[in-house]
Sequence to fold (191 residues):
Amino acid sequence: MYQIMVEQAKAVVNAGGGIRGEKVSHGIKYLEQLQGVFEDREAFGAMDPKTLVYEVDSQAMVSEGTAGGLFFGTSYIHPGQVGNEYFMTKGHYHNRRESAEYYWGIEGSGLLLLMEESGSIRAEQVIPGSLHYIPGNTSHRLVNTGTTVLTVGACWPSDAGHDYKSIEENGFTARVVNVDGKPVVLCKEGS
Ligand code: F6R
Ligand code: MN
Fold:
């Protein structure tokens, strides 16, 4: 029999989803980086380009593209609107299309838009504790429909990669807008 030293965890995740520790980075998305994402161009142009729309903490214990590894992250989508459309993430497919991902709600409330390449779209309600399995071949976007920060955890394969281009070119087939204080999902014809 022999003893091994017990190590401390390499990182900690606090109750609010914040990740601190080894190989953790913090990304910020300002409104100016979301050109073309929101429908109302006039409202977009009238806003401060430095408005903070969302942030992401993530831990990468292996380098991007490593087969068999996992990444772990927390996204914080701030409350706000561009015109009547709620703040949201850019949204993406995974480069490696078959890659799935887990999301889970931590704080706040919102919607997860899930779109297949056919354009067929659905939305899941995100609340603290909700668990969302995002299958392969499905683009995903988080929308904050509340008045507080929407915080969502995520875990995805380290070789999934991100394809933002398909969304930049074609967009999502649904938008989430505030109608009389309530979120309404408006779908394009045929989706
Ligand atoms: C990772 C993932 C999330 C998002 C984050 C920001 O695959 O889905 O960590 O990257 O919510 O959204 P995007 O990447 O669309 O700007
Ligand atoms: Mn993803």
Remarks:
- The two ends are 63 Å apart (CA to CA).
